Amino acid sequence: PSSGGIDVRAGIASLQCPTLGSGRGIAAEFIESRSSGGVLQLAEDEVHAPKVKFANYLEQPAPVILSVTADTDRVTGLDDLQTYEQTIPIEAAEYTESEGGQKYFEIGCRLGTGESSATQSRELELGTYRYRLQRASDGTLSSPQGERFSLTGTLKYTVDQTVAIPWCLFNPSVQAADSRCPTTLALSGSQLGRINGHLPVYIDIFQRDIETQGNEVKLTLLFTLRNGGLGTGASRGYVDDQGLVSFSVEPGFECVSSAGQSMKGSSVQVLLVQGVGSVRCTGLWGGTQWEEGFLNVALSYPYVYEFRSLPIQLLPPGKNTFASSSPFLAR
User: 327: which of 7, 178, 205, 266 is 20 to 30 A away, CA to CA?
Assistant: First the structure.
């Protein structure tokens, strides 16, 4: 697959990393080795040893906090799957460019730090648990046979990233706008850079407007932020801390966000509503020469990614479990 015009390469040779989720932030999936009709079947007291694999699209190592729960109270082990939690370091994604100019983006998936990639694991073993039927004092079953439940994994991590947006400035009193630098500059998608293209909450649209104000130039900047990991079904991502994203642009601008918070400086909190938020900034520029460069925008927010296993079903007493040589990946 491609991302922002850059080929996504899942590692090389035996060090392949999976492509998971939406291609943004950090994603994870449960790994299982057997299923029947899209359901994992367990016999009573059979040991189950779930595993998880990861994909890090951020170009920095990311320590994540993983917790796992089950939507049933009839399991034993893994701290009863109610308080299981651990911190896991995941290697960074890596961007490379060959001598021939070919660009590659390698997803990070190996766990741990300070080790060679050859010795790092690409799967996390969670331990084991058992599912038990409930019985009355006379031994009869008191819990429903064939009941299904699922495991839910929750990743928590912090995104703290600066996005460099290419832009240009000119003074309409001195220069005329042209195709290289229009009065209204609108950018989106891959035009906003590779790093932005892999953030879970990213700058979706940027617009810069220029107008004269006396001897100076008034700049109006419009930003649309979007959560790219909303997901459907078995996975979803969202901003923790009431959906607020810390947004900061270079000094000299006064900003107001969709959260209704305005400051004299250039930092605001952006509220995402149904995954979307906006910021409007204004400032004055006193230059007279045509300029081009990058506008630096800092984004910081706590992010949560949730993923669920396929349904897990306890077989009635006396039934055997189904085994398959084809692995299924719980999505």
Answer: 7
Please determine, for residue 3, whether its predicted confidence score (pLDDT) is greater than 60. Answer: no
Six-digit token string for 123 = 């799967």
Whole-number pLDDT of residue 262: 63
Q: How far apart are CA 237 and CA 225, in angstroms?
A: 15
What distance in Å separates the CA atoms of residue 264 and residue 270, rounded to the nearest whole number?
16
DSSP 198: G
**Helix and strand element counts for the chain (H, E):** 1, 26
Q: What is the average per-residue pLDDT within 38-54? A: 83
Alpha helices in 58-160 (DSSP H): none
Token pair for 294? 């990058």
CA distances, 56 to each of 60, 93, 152 (Å):
9, 6, 19
Distance CA 284, CA 281 (A): 11
C-alpha–C-alpha distance, residues 43 and 315, integer Å:
5
Dihedral sign for Cα 18, 22, 26, 31, please.
negative
Please tell me the distance from the alpha carbon of residue 294 to that of residue 163, in angstroms, as a whole number: 9
Q: What share of the chain is helix, strand, coil (3-state, %, to 5)?
A: 5, 50, 45
Residue pair 316/288 in contact (Cβ under 8 Å)? The answer is: no
CB-side neighbour CA atoms (13 Å) of 204: 13
H or E stretch at 241: helix 240-243
